[in-house]
Amino acid sequence: MAASPARAALVIGPPKFMTDAIVALRNAGGTQALFAQSYLVQSELTKVSGANARGVGIA
Length: 59
Known about the structure:
single chain; alpha+beta
């Protein structure tokens, strides 16, 4: 994914997977926009999203 020319990715899964997937994609150098569909816990997301993260959450 990190080497892909894709500009965005949709990641679907439970909270633990979502957090791990975001960390893995960013650690691999991925800069694509990530759209997460889950019951992702906001406190977990803010731990891994970084200072420059932006987006919209819908609950």
